[in-house]
Write the structure tokens for this entry.
Amino acid sequence: MAVKTGKVGFGSKDALVSSGFARAKMIILAKNIREADRDEILHNAEQSEIPVYVFPGSSLDLGAVCEKPFPVSAMVVREPGDSEVLKLVAEKK
């Protein structure tokens, strides 16, 4: 729902930039994202106090959930739209 009604970005580069400049409300990472990318995104997100959710599936699975015909290693939620995606992190705590 966030992809259809909100504002999102895809890819580890977008997640790195967005986490570094605090331009995201949430970042979702695929379980199999490259370790170096994951570590840098997590570090930036922690500094910017952006919640991060690690999706339990692969980048292919995350791409399928987002209805994209390509793997999605990272997804940046700038505006959730009509979705309740921000509750993922609240439920995790």
